[in-house]
From TrEMBL:
Keywords: Signal. It comes from the Bacteria. Residues 25-117 form the DUF4369 domain. It comes from Pedobacter sp. KACC 23697. The keyword Plastid does not apply. This is DUF4369 domain-containing protein. Pfam families: DUF4369.
């Protein structure tokens, strides 16, 4: 799961702004981290950093469209966890509050895309359930398991599963009714695991031209194109690679062969 999110983030970050047609965003932050602590912001192939001073930090950059970003403190590969959180930036003035070891609870203001995302995924309710599950797991680790703790943990896991289903419905409703939102392709990417491929293509084609041409829209296009060319009985997409001796070979060069084995 972590690897899947890492791949998505890398693809979405690619070429999502050009400074000549972008606008400035200002991200002002409040935190309980100590002065001098480093916070990193990654977006659109940019990796920026800021240092906490008097409980505040600030980032400034360029965006031409709402874009997915990753705010983190310290070394972590988790996208939403104690020291990291995903947010949707917009080219405007933004404010965010982050708490040490609870970055996943970060509150970003000024971004309509973020506001829509928070409502769809029932952020406050989800955060409360995560707190309960984390607390119960910690108690079990420190004190040992008991029937009471196991029962409470089971109840909260069931509640989280219920929320997942509600969030999935909310996401689909949003995609259907908001063809101009840059959040749509991102939600559709998650929905593509459960929706029929024909439905994914239908909703993709319903997006407006600016959304289709966005980094998020292009990501979905690549995903759909990859899945189409990767079907059984379809011709394999051509690619080339350089050998150790400097020569380049391509899959097309083996078309006359009966079988081709690719060993990665």
């Amino acid at each position: 799961m972590k690897m899947r999110f890492a791949l998505i983030f890398a693809l979405l970050s690619s070429n999502c702004f050009a400074q000549n047609d972008a606008s400035i965003f200002n991200l002002s932050g409040k935190t309980d981290l100590k002065d001098g602590e480093k916070i990193t912001l990654e977006y659109c192939e940019v990796k920026d950093s800021a240092f906490v001073k008097n409980g505040s930090f600030e980032f400034r950059g360029y965006l031409k469209e709402p874009s997915l970003a990753w705010l983190k403190h310290g070394q972590t590969n988790v996208f939403d966890g104690p020291e990291s959180v995903r947010v949707f930036l917009e080219p405007t003035n933004l404010q965010i509050t982050v708490i040490n070891e609870q970055f996943f609870k970060a509150k970003l203001l000024g971004s309509q895309t973020q506001s829509d995302w928070d409502k769809i995924r029932l952020k406050e309710e989800s955060d409360q359930i995560k707190d309960k599950i984390d607390g119960l797991n910690k108690a079990i680790k420190e004190k040992g398991s008991s029937d009471s703790l196991k029962a409470n943990l089971s109840i909260n896991y069931a509640e989280r599963s219920r929320l997942f289903k509600v969030v999935e419905k909310n996401s689909l409703d949003f995609v259907r009714n908001n063809p101009n939102s840059y959040l749509g392709p991102y939600l559709l990417s998650s929905l593509s695991r459960s929706l029929p491929k024909d439905s994914v293509r239908f909703y993709y084609r319903s997006f407006s031209e600016p959304v289709l041409n966005s980094a998020l829209g292009r990501f979905i296009y690549k995903k759909l194109s990859y899945e189409e060319t990767s079907k059984i009985a379809q011709p394999a997409p051509d690619f080339s690679a350089k050998l150790a001796n400097g020569k380049t070979i391509s899959l097309a060069g083996f078309k006359s062969k009966k079988y081709v084995l690719l060993d990665f």
